[in-house]
Design brief:
This protein is about 80% helix and about 0% strand. The chain is mostly helical.
């Protein structure tokens, strides 16, 4: 029996809420760093880099098998791989075990199920693809904040304290069970299913406004794809720079502010990032690509200017405002990826086309490294924030250059 289409949204949000746990590495790694005192920061950080690369590969693999295997099998495979990944990581005695467990297995599983959920649930909403992408991605983005807080609460850290091993193992079991159960409820709609809910006509008009339904080979020869890809690199790189250096930026402005307050303020980026995903997904549906891309780029750039003011004046409330605004506008990035691919190049080849856009992460992930290098060179996070503003300005140029799809 088919469910009301909004039920699939709930299933998708729950699935991605757990799959997004891989983004909580900065929190999950703290007890590991305290336990393995001989491991360097670079060794621990490499785990996340590997995880993001595996995520991109998993997302692409999910696009390749879309339509060839049942989406339920995708979810069940991802659930099993999550368990294997967290189990291996929970037994880690060397960085290599972390790289294989958390980095490769969990990263691949996250990307694999991420693509499946967005393409499957999105297919139920051809008339509201941007909004639904935003709602689903809100769950994915809030995972690091919500689950990270739970992890911190139940996982004491310190030299010789191994509580993180039990937490990793329990996470593996939870992801195995919950994602596997959600898999039973993931199903792609047929034409008859959509007709039964009276959304086919609206869906055709909305989902393929440019009259295109092309495959990946046809997409990559279009200038619009590469201009959008470069836009995504700029904006994602700027966001990565902010996320990786947020604690340092806040401490530079408020050196006397308590560590707990700093953590809470940094967490606002994640919260408003989730809100922004829903807002900009809906904005894409109503106003289209151009307005949404300009809003994200200009909004993020102006929000970064608030951070400049905060660093210049050392007024801590300005940091709070800047983090809230930056998180909100940066939240518009991922739902725009999904909605752009679907509306510009059609729904038939969406899973594979979408996975290709997500490869921008392979380059943009170095934004955090650049932000750290700029701080090392200057001794101030002001240079990092100017890098963010520069990325936003360049992204506006790429937006303007997209004349036609």
């Amino acid at each position: 029996m088919k469910l009301n289409r909004w039920c699939y949204v709930v299933v998708g949000v729950v699935t991605l809420l757990l799959a997004g746990l891989v983004y909580a590495w900065s929190v999950l790694s703290l007890p590991l760093g305290a336990y393995f005192t001989e491991w360097s920061k670079a060794q621990l950080s490499l785990t996340y880099t590997i995880c993001m690369m595996a995520f991109c590969i998993g997302c692409m693999a999910g696009g390749m098998v879309a339509g060839k295997i049942n989406v339920k099998l995708n979810a069940w495979f991802s659930a099993a791989l999550f368990f294997v990944g967290f189990f291996v990581a929970s037994r880690a005695q060397s960085p290599a075990m972390l790289y294989v467990g958390y980095g490769v297995c969990c990263g691949f599983a996250s990307g694999f199920v991420y693509n499946a959920v967005l393409s499957t649930v999105g297919a139920w909403f051809p008339d509201k693809h941007g909004l639904i992408s935003g709602v689903l991605l809100m769950g994915f983005g809030l995972s690091s904040f919500i689950v990270g807080k739970v992890y911190q609460a139940v996982t004491p850290s310190g030299e010789g304290v191994e509580a993180w091993r039990n937490s990793f193992f329990v996470f593996g079991i939870i992801l195995l069970v919950v994602i596997a159960v959600c898999g039973f409820f993931l199903v792609k709609p047929t034409k008859e299913d959509l007709e039964a809910q009276g959304i086919v006509a609206a869906g055709k008009k909305k989902s393929n406004a440019n009259g295109l339904d092309i495959d990946t080979k046809q997409m990559v020869v279009r200038p619009s794809f590469w201009l959008y890809f470069l836009w995504a690199i700029c904006m994602t790189g700027a966001g990565m720079a902010l996320i990786s250096q947020a604690s340092g930026i806040a401490k530079e402005v408020g050196p006397e502010v308590a560590a707990g307050t700093i953590t809470t303020v940094v967490g606002l980026i994640s919260i408003f990032n989730g809100i922004g995903r829903v807002f900009f997904g809906n904005l894409f549906d109503k106003k289209g690509r151009s307005v949404t891309m300009y809003a994200v780029s200009v909004g993020f750039g102006l929000s970064s200017v608030i951070l400049v003011a905060a660093l210049s004046t050392k007024v801590f409330p300005l940091i709070i405002l800047g983090f809230v605004c930056c998180g909100f506008f940066y939240g518009g990035l991922n739902p725009t990826h999904s909605a752009f691919v679907n509306s510009a190049y059609g729904a038939t080849h969406y899973p594979m086309n979408f996975s290709l856009v997500n490869l921008n992460l392979l380059i943009a992930s170095f934004g955090g490294t650049i932000g750290g290098m700029l701080f090392d060179a200057s001794g101030s996070y002001m240079t990092t924030v100017f890098f963010m503003i520069g990325c936003a300005v360049i992204s506006v140029v790429f937006t303007a250059l997209i004349r036609k799809i």
